[in-house]
Amino acid sequence: MSRGFSEQEKKEIKFKLISAFETALKTQTIHKISIDDLIYEAGISKGSFYSFYETKELLFVDVVHHVQNRMKENLYVIIQTEKEEPKKALKNMIKSMYEHLLLNPWILKLTSVENERTMRRLPIEVRNNLIEQDSYDIEEMLNHLGIESSIPVNEISSALRTLLFSIPNKELIGPDFEKGIMLLIDGFIDRVVGDNN
């Protein structure tokens, strides 16, 4: 990192870059977001940008982590404030994820062809870490709820992504999408939790 910045300034600049990128993702694709736009928002030079991130794609990874961490904080609030049965708490957590994704629709576009190109530009270990983090987060969530499932965590994570990534097709599916997604969530929870909890 640049020697001209204090540790506090480094944190603030990274936060500004992450926030600027996240804001830009609401209206633009990754490919159309320029480093020049991001450094303007953060108030730093291009050379300083490269002392924080080697590429725009690596900054994107931090944006994804930032959003995931914010979502996890919301989920832990549900765990702490709702002293309910595990099934009901899990349902409320999945509903919270669903609502979070509705507020951040760019996340749901991560499977698009353009974003696939972005992911391919990342080092393989970074790509694998993003996928593994999902499974780790799901496992941690189930542990906090005291849920033991006979289904492997990677399958639970994959099923949950499949459910949540149906959101972009909401209009295509029709007016009963909300009811349908809740039915699928109930079935998902019944299968994951089973009779053991």
Automatic annotation (TrEMBL):
Transmembrane segments: none annotated. InterPro entries: Homeodomain-like_sf (IPR009057), HTH-type_Tx_Regulator (IPR050624), HTH_TetR (IPR001647). The keyword Repressor applies. Residues 34-53 bind DNA. Keywords: DNA-binding, Repressor. It comes from the Bacteria. Residues 11-71 form the HTH tetR-type domain. This is TetR/AcrR family transcriptional regulator. It comes from Oceanobacillus jeddahense. The lineage of its organism: Bacteria, Bacillati, Bacillota, Bacilli, Bacillales.
